[in-house]
Amino acid sequence: MAIEDDVLVIGGGIAGATAALSAADEGADVRLVTHKESTLRNASGLIDVLGYLPSDDADGASEGPLVDPFAAIPDLPETHPYRTVGVEAVREALSFFDGILGDAYHGAHTDDNALVPTQGGSVKPTARYPRSSAAGLASDPRDALLVGFETLPTFEGPLAAAHLEAAGVPFQARGVTLSFPGIVRDDAKVTRYAHLLDQDEAVSRDGTGAREALAAAVQPHLEGEERVGFPAVLGDEHPDEVRAALEAHLGVDVFEVPMGPPSLPGLRLEDRLYAALEAAGVEVRSGVPVVDYESDGDDGRIDRVVVDRNGAEIPHRADQYVLATGGLVGKGVESNRERVIEPIFDCHVPHATDRYDWFSEDAFGEHPFARFGVVPDGELRPRDGSGNVEFENLRAAGAVLGGYDYAAEKSGAGVSIATGYVAGRHAAARSTDARARVATNDEVTPQ
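Structure tokens predicted for Anaerobic glycerol-3-phosphate dehydrogenase subunit B:
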């Protein structure tokens, strides 16, 4: 017997979580299934809407960084997911997401992008940024000291500072590299740094805690800077407490610089999203890949899907489905030497016949594969090669959609939020219509 829900969301990243929360917010009974851990742990934790406009130039050069991402959306190609859902839906979706994030993120006060320094010393335009990064904005004229650690080579404070200076930021940046109190191994995980600071563990024979010891190591290197930036390892469970303690010891503002994988800001965002799913009553099942589906060709609907739970095939039936499995990176879109496919429902993914036309010979050029994905209609239902809806009750959201290059545009999180929100709303509305029809039929059926 199949497990039944109003809406079944397949995929547990930002798009899937947003779709599930959006549908639940409309009153639908929602279940979310995901094959593996979310890619959020590999993400910076920043919420980008649109940082750069794609270019038609042969060299792939983009226009930006953009000041107002919403004003630029009408200039995007018609095939872009933002054009499909519309700028007002993007705004509404981001407002919905702001409600989920609460005060953990900043940036909702303006349409303009913020400029956030990254671990390499570049400046990234983003619409929302963690509270832990707020004191580090590149538009802030206060001088900054960037602190790297000898055992954490992925962030070099002096190099990042030099790159920021070269980028023309309106402040002086200096960098230093120090030993992190209590850590001597070069292979220590970022969670080890965070745990030391979260628990304020003793890191010396006299019992000095990690927070005070770290501040004491930084203090002699301050030369009048009003803010200090650290790699994003300042706590996992209690990051606000860690920053507050460091600020009290140092007498300056403290901020985190977003890092690559594994990313603590990404993990914190994941925790917040999954806490919201639990609060909304969404049933979440991880480690259960969808391995098959059944459809009724007469009405163009998916009847059920089959998930693999520890080797057992379990049927799940829903009135509506949302596909949010990611793109090429997340394996929501796959390729072999002959074709590009969407592996669960075999939805159409446009691509050139010759695989050598999938990429540019210029490593930094515009690569067609970056835009591979399913092609949706106005309700985000995937369409086949003739433009017809493939399944009436299936919608797609996030990186599984084609028509945009999220890496070049800095639009990944924004597209996931906007399309997840719209897909969830449509799925819930259609499911509500179905329940209403059933109720009406029951009322008029003779007894």
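The radius of gyration is 24 Å.
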